[in-house]
Amino acid sequence: MLRRLRAPIVLIALVCLGGPRHGSAQASQVTGSGSDERVPPGAFLGELTWTDAEERLASAPLVILPFGAGAKEHGPHLPMNADAVVMEFLCQAAVDSLPVVVAPPVLHGWFPAFRGFPGTEVADPAVFQSYVMEIAQSLVRAGAQRLVILNTGIEKATGLPLAMVAREIRVQTGTPTMLVSWDDLETAEVEALQEQNWGGHADEMETSIHLVLQPHLVKMELARPGERRVSGPPGPGYRPGLFSRDPGDPAYSESGVSGDPSLAAPEKGSRLLAIMTREWIHSLRAFSQEPLRR
Predict the structure, then answer these.
(1) Which DSSP string do the residues of 111-136 spell out, in sequence order?
(2) Does 26 score more than 50 pLDDT?
């Protein structure tokens, strides 16, 4: 079950709105959920009775199927639940903002770049894709009008099998489907927040996020710059990344970090979360108007 992340939502409110406000409407002013956040317009599927669920699934403009790795390496300083916690945060923002229904999350998935480190992975991409496909089909059978797959991994990693699911659901059922990955929620504003010269995983920005969402689990005393990735001259084409445990591999990584997490700060994390939340809600609002098949 998704956890409630009320306090971080308020932090994002302060960042988005430029200062403190009075009362519990702080969070709703960020997400547009109205004046009483105790009664959000959306719902978590697992918290509904089956009769309520049947009605909500058929009437909600969007049903969200979220994926975030529940245990994937994020360096020696961050907990392995990092992706899942960001997923929970974005799902809560969606429920507070719009009349969506959020399905129970998928916490285990395909992330081969981190396979050499501890974690819980579905190593076969076909198995992962099939598993998500079955869940998505069940939501469509239950009445979902439009399906959104949230991926707090990146587009050309966990996003690859998830994109196949989104396309197949659209073709097989006619249901409008959208995949939103982490990359989709970052804008040019994020680049301006960074002090590191390079990064990408468990770095300055990702660590900053968790200094907001779960600071008690961040070990900043262990935050060190990761190894600079060795690569050939840039050119067109997709080059799958890897955090190799083999010292002879050019992609060898002792820490599993890409970037400099020592530069992290809660203020950067709050701003990044505000940007991602804004883009997430914008994408949902826009897709809620996607035409339905007659």
Answers:
(1) -GGGTTSSS-B---HHHHHHHHHHHH
(2) no
Instruction: Quote the Cα angle for 242-132-50, to 5°.
Output: 145
Q: How far apart are CA 55 and CA 52, in angstroms?
A: 5
Query: Any residues with CB less than 8 A from the CB of 50 and at least 6 apart, and which?
Result: none
Q: Is residue 138 part of a domain?
A: yes
Residue 32 located in a structural domain = yes
Q: What is the pLDDT of residue 77?
A: 98
Q: Shortest CA distance to 111 belongs to which of 262, 256, 247, 277?
A: 256
Residue 292 lies in a domain: no
pLDDT in tens, 236-247: 999 999 999 999
How is residue 251 written in tokens? 């992609």
Rounded distance between C-alpha atoms, residue 123 and residue 244, angstroms: 16
Q: In this structure, what are the phi and psi dihedrals at residue 47, rounded to the nearest 5 degrees?
A: -95, 0
On the CB side of 80, CA atoms within 13 Å amount to: 15
Structural domain of residue 90, as residue ranges?
Answer: 6-200+269-287
Q: What is the pTM of this model?
A: 0.88
**What is the arithmetic mean of pLDDT over 59-67?**
98
Closest CA to 224 of 71, 72, 75: 75
Residue 63 has pLDDT above 90, yes or no: yes
Rounded CA gap, 294 and 289, in Å? 14
Q: What is the mean pLDDT of the chain?
A: 89
